[in-house]
Design goal:
Layout lengths: L5 H9 L6 E3 L2 E3 L2 H21 L3 E5 L3 H13 L3 E5 L2 H9 L7 E5 L7 H14 L7 E5 L4 H9 L4 E4 L4 H13 L6
Parallel strand pairs: 3-4, 3-5, 5-6, 6-7
Antiparallel strand pairs: 1-2
Protein backbone atom coordinates (compact mmCIF):
# COMPACT_ATOMS: atom_id res chain seq x y z
CA UNK A 1 0.00 0.00 0.00
CA UNK A 2 1.34 3.39 -1.03
CA UNK A 3 0.66 6.46 1.06
CA UNK A 4 0.89 9.87 -0.57
CA UNK A 5 0.08 13.03 1.34
CA UNK A 6 -2.79 15.28 0.32
CA UNK A 7 -0.41 18.23 -0.16
CA UNK A 8 1.75 16.16 -2.56
CA UNK A 9 -1.29 15.28 -4.64
CA UNK A 10 -2.37 18.95 -4.81
CA UNK A 11 1.15 20.05 -5.85
CA UNK A 12 1.18 17.39 -8.57
CA UNK A 13 -2.15 18.72 -9.81
CA UNK A 14 -0.87 22.31 -9.86
CA UNK A 15 2.20 21.19 -11.83
CA UNK A 16 -0.04 19.30 -14.27
CA UNK A 17 1.63 15.99 -13.42
CA UNK A 18 -1.62 14.56 -12.13
CA UNK A 19 -4.95 15.23 -13.88
CA UNK A 20 -7.75 16.66 -11.74
CA UNK A 21 -11.04 18.45 -12.09
CA UNK A 22 -12.58 21.14 -9.92
CA UNK A 23 -16.08 20.61 -8.54
CA UNK A 24 -17.12 23.69 -6.66
CA UNK A 25 -14.13 24.67 -4.54
CA UNK A 26 -12.76 21.12 -4.29
CA UNK A 27 -10.26 19.36 -6.52
CA UNK A 28 -11.16 15.80 -7.48
CA UNK A 29 -8.80 13.09 -8.62
CA UNK A 30 -9.35 9.75 -10.27
CA UNK A 31 -7.94 6.86 -8.28
CA UNK A 32 -6.68 5.34 -11.54
CA UNK A 33 -4.66 8.52 -12.25
CA UNK A 34 -3.05 8.41 -8.82
CA UNK A 35 -2.33 4.67 -9.17
CA UNK A 36 -0.78 5.22 -12.60
CA UNK A 37 1.43 8.03 -11.27
CA UNK A 38 2.57 5.90 -8.31
CA UNK A 39 3.37 2.94 -10.58
CA UNK A 40 5.42 5.14 -12.92
CA UNK A 41 7.34 6.67 -9.99
CA UNK A 42 8.08 3.24 -8.48
CA UNK A 43 9.27 1.91 -11.85
CA UNK A 44 11.51 4.96 -12.30
CA UNK A 45 12.98 4.55 -8.82
CA UNK A 46 13.67 0.87 -9.48
CA UNK A 47 15.37 1.64 -12.80
CA UNK A 48 17.48 4.36 -11.18
CA UNK A 49 18.47 2.08 -8.28
CA UNK A 50 19.60 -0.61 -10.73
CA UNK A 51 21.78 1.81 -12.68
CA UNK A 52 24.05 1.92 -9.64
CA UNK A 53 23.62 -1.71 -8.59
CA UNK A 54 26.44 -4.19 -8.80
CA UNK A 55 25.98 -7.00 -11.29
CA UNK A 56 25.68 -10.56 -10.10
CA UNK A 57 26.43 -13.56 -12.32
CA UNK A 58 23.85 -16.19 -11.33
CA UNK A 59 24.50 -19.73 -12.60
CA UNK A 60 21.98 -22.55 -12.21
CA UNK A 61 20.83 -25.24 -14.63
CA UNK A 62 17.34 -25.27 -13.10
CA UNK A 63 15.42 -22.65 -15.10
CA UNK A 64 12.82 -22.18 -12.37
CA UNK A 65 15.50 -21.49 -9.74
CA UNK A 66 17.32 -19.18 -12.15
CA UNK A 67 14.16 -17.22 -12.88
CA UNK A 68 12.92 -16.97 -9.29
CA UNK A 69 16.30 -16.07 -7.77
CA UNK A 70 16.89 -13.52 -10.57
CA UNK A 71 13.53 -11.92 -9.86
CA UNK A 72 14.22 -11.94 -6.11
CA UNK A 73 17.61 -10.26 -6.59
CA UNK A 74 16.16 -7.72 -9.03
CA UNK A 75 13.55 -6.81 -6.42
CA UNK A 76 16.43 -6.11 -4.03
CA UNK A 77 18.05 -3.75 -6.54
CA UNK A 78 20.70 -6.00 -8.07
CA UNK A 79 21.43 -6.42 -11.75
CA UNK A 80 21.46 -10.13 -12.54
CA UNK A 81 23.21 -11.79 -15.43
CA UNK A 82 21.69 -15.29 -15.58
CA UNK A 83 23.48 -18.31 -17.03
CA UNK A 84 22.02 -21.82 -17.39
CA UNK A 85 25.42 -23.54 -17.31
CA UNK A 86 29.04 -23.04 -16.44
CA UNK A 87 29.85 -22.89 -20.15
CA UNK A 88 27.31 -20.13 -20.73
CA UNK A 89 28.64 -18.18 -17.74
CA UNK A 90 32.21 -18.39 -19.04
CA UNK A 91 31.06 -17.28 -22.48
CA UNK A 92 29.22 -14.28 -21.05
CA UNK A 93 32.26 -13.14 -19.11
CA UNK A 94 34.82 -13.88 -21.84
CA UNK A 95 33.01 -13.03 -25.08
CA UNK A 96 30.41 -10.51 -23.99
CA UNK A 97 32.74 -8.81 -21.55
CA UNK A 98 30.17 -8.35 -18.80
CA UNK A 99 31.52 -6.83 -15.61
CA UNK A 100 30.50 -8.79 -12.55
CA UNK A 101 30.93 -8.12 -8.86
CA UNK A 102 29.69 -11.43 -7.46
CA UNK A 103 29.23 -14.99 -8.69
CA UNK A 104 26.44 -17.15 -7.32
CA UNK A 105 26.57 -20.67 -8.66
CA UNK A 106 24.89 -24.00 -8.21
CA UNK A 107 27.26 -26.92 -7.71
CA UNK A 108 25.55 -29.85 -9.42
CA UNK A 109 25.18 -28.96 -13.11
CA UNK A 110 25.63 -30.94 -16.31
CA UNK A 111 28.87 -30.20 -18.13
CA UNK A 112 31.07 -27.96 -16.03
CA UNK A 113 30.02 -28.09 -12.37
CA UNK A 114 30.00 -25.03 -10.11
CA UNK A 115 33.44 -25.60 -8.59
CA UNK A 116 35.10 -25.99 -12.01
CA UNK A 117 33.21 -22.92 -13.26
CA UNK A 118 34.61 -20.88 -10.37
CA UNK A 119 38.13 -22.13 -11.08
CA UNK A 120 37.85 -21.17 -14.77
CA UNK A 121 36.32 -17.77 -14.00
CA UNK A 122 39.20 -17.08 -11.62
CA UNK A 123 41.73 -18.10 -14.28
CA UNK A 124 40.07 -15.81 -16.80
CA UNK A 125 39.97 -12.87 -14.38
CA UNK A 126 43.64 -13.39 -13.51
CA UNK A 127 44.72 -13.79 -17.17
CA UNK A 128 42.99 -10.52 -18.07
CA UNK A 129 44.29 -8.57 -15.05
CA UNK A 130 40.83 -8.22 -13.56
CA UNK A 131 40.15 -8.09 -9.86
CA UNK A 132 39.01 -11.28 -8.22
CA UNK A 133 35.27 -11.64 -7.69
CA UNK A 134 33.70 -13.10 -4.55
CA UNK A 135 31.63 -16.27 -4.93
CA UNK A 136 28.65 -17.82 -3.20
CA UNK A 137 27.77 -21.46 -3.74
CA UNK A 138 24.14 -22.57 -3.65
CA UNK A 139 23.17 -26.22 -3.65
CA UNK A 140 20.34 -28.58 -2.88
CA UNK A 141 22.67 -31.41 -1.89
CA UNK A 142 24.92 -31.85 1.13
CA UNK A 143 28.23 -33.22 -0.11
CA UNK A 144 31.18 -33.11 2.29
CA UNK A 145 33.73 -33.60 -0.49
CA UNK A 146 32.39 -30.68 -2.52
CA UNK A 147 32.17 -28.51 0.60
CA UNK A 148 35.81 -29.20 1.46
CA UNK A 149 36.84 -28.44 -2.14
CA UNK A 150 34.95 -25.14 -1.92
CA UNK A 151 36.72 -24.37 1.36
CA UNK A 152 40.10 -25.07 -0.27
CA UNK A 153 39.22 -22.43 -2.86
CA UNK A 154 38.39 -19.97 -0.07
CA UNK A 155 34.65 -20.02 -0.68
CA UNK A 156 33.07 -19.46 2.71
CA UNK A 157 29.47 -18.84 1.66
CA UNK A 158 27.85 -22.20 1.03
CA UNK A 159 24.05 -21.81 0.99
CA UNK A 160 21.64 -24.73 0.91
CA UNK A 161 18.46 -24.60 -1.18
CA UNK A 162 15.81 -23.82 -0.28
CA UNK A 163 17.46 -20.95 1.56
CA UNK A 164 16.16 -18.43 4.04
CA UNK A 165 15.84 -15.25 1.99
CA UNK A 166 17.09 -12.90 4.71
CA UNK A 167 20.20 -15.02 5.24
CA UNK A 168 20.78 -15.23 1.49
CA UNK A 169 20.57 -11.45 1.04
CA UNK A 170 22.83 -10.96 4.08
CA UNK A 171 25.44 -13.28 2.53
CA UNK A 172 25.26 -11.29 -0.72
CA UNK A 173 25.57 -7.96 1.07
CA UNK A 174 28.53 -9.22 3.11
CA UNK A 175 30.36 -10.42 0.00
CA UNK A 176 29.67 -7.19 -1.92
CA UNK A 177 30.78 -5.02 1.01
CA UNK A 178 34.22 -6.60 0.75
CA UNK A 179 34.83 -5.12 -2.73
CA UNK A 180 35.15 -1.51 -3.97
CA UNK A 181 32.00 0.37 -5.01
CA UNK A 182 30.62 0.01 -8.56
CA UNK A 183 30.79 3.75 -9.11
Amino acid sequence: MNITSKSTIYKLSQNAELPSCKIGKQLRFRKSSIDKWLTEKEAGATRQRRVYAKSILLIDDDKLVLKSVSRFLNMHGYNVEPAESGEQALEKVAKQGIKIYLVITDIMMPGIDGIETIKRLREFQHAHNRASVPEIVITGFADQEVESEAEKLGITDYVYKPFVTNEFIKAIENRLESIPSAN
